[in-house]
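Rotation project, supervised by the postdoc (A.L.). Task for the rotation student: set up a whole-complex structure prediction and record inputs and outputs verbatim in this book. Inputs entered:
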Amino acid sequence: MKYMTSVNGKEYVIEVDRDCEVVVNGEPHAIDFHNLTARGLVSLLLDNHSYEGVVEENSGNIWDVLLRGELYEVKVQDERAYRLAKARGVLAEASNEAVIKSPMPGIIVAVLVDERDLVKKGDTIIILESMKMENELKSPIDGIVTKIMVEAGDSVEKGFKMAVIVNEDEEGLED
Amino acid sequence: MTDGLLTKKFDSILIANRGEIAMRVLRAARELGIKAIAVYSDADRDAPHVRYANEAYYIGASPAAESYLVPEKIIEAAKRSGAQAIHPGYGFLAERASFAQMCYDEGIVFVGPSPHAISVMGDKLTARQTVIAAGVPVVPGIEAGLSDDELKAAADKMGYPVLVKASAGGGGKGMRPVYKSEELLSSIAAARREATAAFGDGTIYLEKLIEGGRHIEIQLLADAHGNAISLGERECSLQRRHQKVIEEAPSYVVDEELRQRMGAVAVAAAKAVGYVNAGTIEFLMDKDKKFYFLEMNTRVQVEHPVTELVTGIDIVQEQLRIARGRKLRIKQEDVKVKGWAIECRINAEDPYNNYLPSTGLITTSRIPTGPGVRVDTGVFPGYEVTPYYDSMIAKLVCYGETRGAAILRMRRALDEYRIMGVKTNIPFHQHMMDSHRFLSGQFDTNFVEERFSMDDREAIHDLQAAIMATLVAHQQGEQASQIISSSGDGGRNQWRWHYR
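Outputs recorded:
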C-alpha cells in the first residue's frame, strides 16, 4: 500500500508492503511498531531508533501525533484518495476565505473591526474571554471583513462562526 | 493585630479548593493524620481531590462563582462535615479577609493569617504605607489622594517612565506604563476605568517604572508565637501577561549575603502586620540588585514546591502545624538552601497560536518520573479541561545539585511528558530550556513577551510522526477491510503489531 503523507509542509511517499519494513521516498527503513494502548500510545523502532508517541485521529485523514512534547498534524492519504483530492483540490483551494471560529466557549469582550474593514494577517479581530483570560483572535489572512456575526457581551460556544474575512485580490471584490 | 486569628489543634480539615493545590493540601493533611474533606462542583465530581479525600461535599454548579467562590457554601459544607479547619489553597477565597473572618466567627481555624493582615496586604496602597513604616524599601512613587493635575505635576518632577497602578490591582489589571508626560492623564483614566470594572475600586497611584527588573520573592513562615523565618528566594521573572510560567530557587543573581538581607527585610514586612502562617513577599530587583517591596501574597503560592525542594521543608505541612498553634520547629540558622529546583507550569494552551487556551478531554496523561522529578497535578485520562477554571493543569518540578543539572533534568522530564487531548505549553518550556538567555540566567520580567519567540523553534521529528500516523491509518484500513472480507485472523500479527 502506498501513502502520501504530509506534515509541516513536507511530503513523504510511504510504502507499507513488507514485514518489518517501510519505504519512505524510495528508501527502505527497518521498523518494529507496537500499539501499547487502545488510546493511541505507540512505540516505533525505526532502524533501531526508539520513539514513543501518541497517535489520534483528528478528522478525516488528519492525524494528531504527539512526539517528544511536540504535536504534529499529519495528513495521510492513500494513493487513490490522494489523486481524487488533487483533482478536487484545484476548486477547493481557490476559496480565499477565512472564518474566525471560537476556539472555546467564552464571552466576546470586543470586536475590533467593522464589516468592510481591510485587515492584515495577524491583526486582532475579536477579543474573547475564556478561562479567566482575554484572548486575541487574529486574522489568518490579508483581506476584507465581509461578515461579523457577534458583538461584545455575546456568549459563544466552541466552534461558533464569528467573522468572515475574504482575500479581495483573489475574489476581485469591489469596495 | 491578630484579632480574628484562631489557632488550635484540629483533626479534620476542609479544603476549599480544587485541582493540584487541593491534592497538595490533601496529601499534607493525610501525612499528618488529619482527616481531609473535599468540596466539589458539578465539573469536578470525578476529580482526584474528591476521590482521594476522606469525605467530599457537593457545593454547586461548575462556574466558580456558583461554587468555589461562594463563602456561605464552603462554611455550610464545613459545618455539615464537622470540619474544624479550612485551608483555602490559592486563588478563589484565599485572600478574602471577609472569608477568614467568617471562619473565625464560626469557630473554624482558617489556615492563613488574620483577616486584618489579609486586608492590609490585599490593598497595594495600605500595604505600601505599612511596610514603609517598618523600614522596608519600596519603589519611589506618588501616593493616591491627589487630583489628576497634582499627580501629573508630581510625575513630571519625578521623571518618566512611570507605572500607573490600581490600589486593588492584581494580575496586571489597572496597571499601565507611561513613557511620556502627555500620555499620563489618558493612562490614569484608562487604569481607573479598568480597576473600577475589575475590582469595584478605582483608586490609583504612581510608581517609578523600573525597567529591566527581575521579580524575586521571599518565602516566609511565621507562627502565632511571634517567630518568623525566611526560606530563601524564588526567581519568578519569567512571566507572560503577569502570569508566572517558570520559577526557580535559588535565583541566579542572589548570593548568600543578599539572600539574608532580603530575608530580614521580608520578615520585618510580615511582622509589621502581625503576620501568621506561610506568606510571600514579592520584590522587584533592579539591575544594580537594589530591591523594592512589590506586594505580599497572604497564602501558599503556586510555586512553593521549588522552595520545598531546596530547603527540605514541607511548607504545606508547616502551614497546618502553625494553624494548630504549634511553635516553629525550624530556626533561621537551620534554613539551608541546597541544590537547585525549577518549576514549569504546564498550561492547556497553544504556544504556537498566541497561547490560546485549549479545552477538551484529556485522552492520555503520562507523567514523567524518576530521580529528582516531582509532578503536582489534578488531571488524569478522562478529565475534561473546561473553560470554568484556570488553564494550569500541572506543575513539573525538577531538582538538581546545580542549576545546570536541574535544567538537564527538566529537559529530560519534558521529553517524557505525554498529554494528549488538549494542546499544552510543553514546547514553550522545551524551547526555553534551550534558550541561551535562560541558560545564562540573563532575563527580566519582559523577556518572555518581548524577546522570546516560538517562531525559531523547529519540530525535528516530522519523518517519525509521518510514519507513526501512516502506520496507524494503515492498520485502521486493514482492520476495516478484514471486517468486510471476514478473512479470519488474517495478518493481525504480520507487522508484529500487538494490541492490548
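Student's summary: Confidence is low (pLDDT under 50) at residues 486-494, 496-500 of chain B.
Supervisor addendum: Chain B touches chain A through 49 residues (CB under 8 Å).
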